[in-house]
Description:
Blueprint (H helix, E strand, L loop, with lengths): L20 H12 L8 H9 L16 H9 L10 H26 L7
Helix pairs in contact: 2-3
Amino acid sequence: MMKKALLPVKNISKERKVSGKEALTKLLRWHFGHSEYRGKQLEAIEAVLSGRDCFCLMPTGGGKSICYQIPALAKPGIVLVVSPLIGGETIFVVLIWMFVYTTLHNVFRLFGFDARV
């Protein structure tokens, strides 16, 4: 008895392999609507596609996500991207809530309210 795959991986095109500046710019234009890459994005994308390690430091809004989304579109098969952004955002939210709680607690104590939770 043949088992079915959870994902239809046999139907994924293995022919898709994009390289070259023009082809990568075409992907950028088609999927994201941008006519050209910013800064060192193209250099980072080409490094990833060639299998080299790449460290890309950009400011918020600098276009870091393009540097892994375009290679994922250009390579055949399934691409898994592990990003630390979620963890960083979670820590940031926890720190904000700790600050708000501490501030409110101190304000309530200042005015004589019992602010135990």
